Amino acid sequence: MEKDEFNKVLLCISCGNKTLMNKVASYENKVEDWTNCEYSNQQELLGISYDIWNLYFCPVCHNVTLELAQWETYSSYPKIVYEIIYPTTISKSHAVPLPIKNAFEAALKVRHLDGAICALSIRRTLEMMCKEEGEIKGNLYEKLTALGKRGVLPPILDKMASVLRTLGNDAAHAGDKDFPPELVSSMIEFTEIILDYVYVLPSKLAEIQSDIDKEKTKPETDVTKVEITDLST
Ligand SMILES: [Zn+2]
Questions:
Q1: Residues ≥6 apart with Cβ < 8 Å to 59
Q2: What is the pLDDT of residue 232?
Q3: Range of 30's domain?
Q4: 148 Cα to the center of ligand 1, angstroms
Q5: Are residues 49 and 164 in the same domain?
């Protein structure tokens, strides 16, 4: 890692500007992986893994961005993987399909710049979700209704999506509809809830279920035997 890396051009999710940010704090967690060598009694270092948290300050909106840089020395060509941990967005979840993620990311980038453009991007995110879920016929209203009928969206989320669709339409037609920050925040929140329900929660559930199934198939240790031995001593 370069130790003199104090500034970085980053996209600030809070204000939507791509700007040079100052690194104001950094913390490194280093984990060494040692093993007993088979032939000598010596310990052998298999590799080292690093987690480095960097906190950057946006000079435009005065909010912070937390970046996690991870790398390890196990491979011959170590590669640093960067991830933005804060501000959190649902689009970071691996469960959300890429076209939907990109569309939502576009909405987040402009949320503080232009509420109407944000509403349009959210409408597009919903279009992408319908397509991903196999609804390609008709307008967005018909597609969302179809998703509701199929149970992909429960009634409350169907209503949320319907509100977002209407706001997206208002944004598309050059009316005098205002998009104040509170409304934009609610639109983002609604979209996150919808994507959470359709993609993130089922994925988490599947992970937990898979762990439970693995536990079930593990051979059970003979607890009775251990207890009996203990009593006899
Ligand atoms: Zn900013």
A1: 19, 20, 21, 22
A2: 47
A3: 7-88
A4: 37
A5: no
The low-confidence residues of the chain, meaning pLDDT below 70, are: 1-5, 89-92, 220-233
Contact yes or no for 65/21 (Cβ under 8 A):
yes
Count other Cβ atoms within 10 Å, centred on residue 85: 13
| Range 122-148 burial, b when 16+ CB lie within 10 A, else e | bbbbbbbbbeebebeeeebeebbbbbb
Q: How far apart are CA 55 and CA 87, in angstroms?
A: 11
CB 125 within 8 A of CB 168: no
Distance 82 CA to ligand 1 centre (A): 19
Distance 10 CA to ligand 1 centre (A): 9
Alpha-carbon span 223 to 48, nearest angstrom:
38
- The tally of domains found in the chain comes to 2
